Amino acid sequence: MSETSTASAKSASAKAARAAPGTAPGTGAGAAPVVRARLLEAAARLLAEEGPKALTARRLAAEVEASTMVVYTHFGGMPDLVRAVVDEGFERLAAMLAEVPPSDDPLADLARLAVAYRANALANPHLYSVMFGGAVLGALCEDDEEIRSGRFTEGAGTFGVLVEATGRAMSAGRLPGVGDADPADVSAQLWSALHGYVMLELGGHFTPADEETVFLPLLRTLAVGLGAAVPGMDAGG
């Protein structure tokens, strides 16, 4: 093969690599999962920080240094992308909660689940904002009932973890103040307080130092309000 032919072949190969959907500069065909993950992270950040108007194929493509086609290759369109962002957020939350196995002390389990919930939010602030409504999705979900309700549907599994732990604590007599209340209702009370703290922390109103002076005391206060003995709310270990 002549030098001219070799040069032409190399040039054609380079152009093909640049045009291949789902690949970023300096990566091979196996980079598709990495590009998808980067698109999800970028979409969550844009939604959380700038709102739905910032979520465009051009902006996302620039984030991953690829053509705009990469967005449609991986997600088909913006509604599917937003749905995937929500799914990713709940998958990460579920994984974090799964690291808290049930023990013989359901009250302590509740405390550890609360700690894990907060840790997930701090590790994934943009995803958390999209998951629970802090990021207004605007026109991206006006015509898509699945997205409007999806955050609640996808969250049912993770909320179920809290309900199960609450139910065990109630059955063990560790939350006598709730009487015969529905564990789901009690869990919703706990979640509401936990979510409020997390949102304030993500907004910069609390610092990591406030964990000892505000967050953990909050968990104890909630437990006492439900009739629990405070020692069982040890979130460590």
3D architecture notes:
The structure is a single chain. The chain is mostly helical and 237 residues long. The protein has a domain at 79-226: Tetracycline Repressor, domain 2 (Orthogonal Bundle). Helix content is 68%, strand content 0%. It has 10 helices and no strands. Helix 2 packs across helix 7. The longest helix is centred in the middle third of the chain and has 27 residues, at 145-171. The relative contact order is 0.10. The model is unreliable at 1-29 (pLDDT under 50).
Topology of this structure?
Blueprint: H1 3-19, H2 32-50, H3 57-64, H4 69-75, H5 78-98, H6 106-123, H7 125-131, H8 145-171, H9 183-202, H10 210-225
Helix pairs in contact: 2-3, 2-5, 2-7, 4-5, 5-6, 5-7, 5-8, 6-7, 6-8, 6-9, 8-9, 9-10
Organism: Actinomadura harenae
Pfam family, one: TetR_C_33
GO molecular function: DNA-binding transcription factor activity; transcription cis-regulatory region binding
